[in-house]
Automatic annotation (TrEMBL):
Keywords: Signal, TPR repeat. Pfam families: TPR_11. It comes from the Bacteria. PROSITE patterns: TPR. Residues 24-47 are annotated as: Disordered. InterPro entries: TPR-like_helical_dom_sf, TPR_rpt. Gene3D superfamilies: Tetratricopeptide repeat domain (1.25.40.10). Residues 1-20 form the signal peptide. SUPFAM superfamilies: TPR-like. It comes from Luteolibacter ambystomatis. This is Tetratricopeptide repeat protein.
Amino acid sequence: MKKHFLPLTLLLGAAVTAIAEEKPAADKPVTEKATEKKDTPQYTPNQQAFLNLPEEKRTEYAKHLQEAYRVFQEKRVFETLDELAKARAIFKDDPDALNLFGSCQVEFRAFDKAMEAYIAADKLSPDNPNIRFNIGEVYFVTKKWKECLDTFEKVLKLVAEKNIKLDPGLLRLMEFKVLLCKIKLGKKEEAEILAEKYDYLDDSPYYYFAHAAMAYEKKDEINAEEWLARANRIFNNPATLSPWQDTMVEFGYIKSFYGEDSAAPAAAK
């Protein structure tokens, strides 16, 4: 599970671009006519607050946040938190930093702290599917099935309505978690329909894991393991299968390496 919590695209992308736009080039004066034609960039209040910082502070912030992302990718979580603390000492209202802080807490399985950070990020960047996905993930691992179902269904609807480009594999994983939530909520017929939504030609492991889940639910472990074995043969890239396997562990269909219903050891208190 922990492998697929999502960091955001840096808020700084738009902000740093705007820094370069603050002053026109000396040899290209901006005429009144040109100014009228050019659309004024639209920034959220927190982005504008960032732009109001001195340039050296913005640069320092960007350095710390980018380093935080780098070390997080290497699973150096304590160093990530250190870089985030330095960044947030400069600017606190970046949904990127809050989202990354939440993902660090997920690594520790400190889900209350993670949810607090994700909700704060969501307030700063409403309807961002990446943040909403992470919120749904916390609901999933804390077994709040109704909240998880509602969150993931809203994300899928948001992505479809606004034509947001999200990783296709991630979309399938969300759909699979919707199926699992429906199982837990007693909506077995709806889950059966979702299990048949895609076939073996799909580019994701959805087809195999969905059928494995339905087999597990029917107490047919042999059939379930056969479906998982097929997935392993066809999708032999561990990076592709890992999020799906973690999901089955979190849901309770597969035993954890750690001997408990979790994909990682519990966080130290």
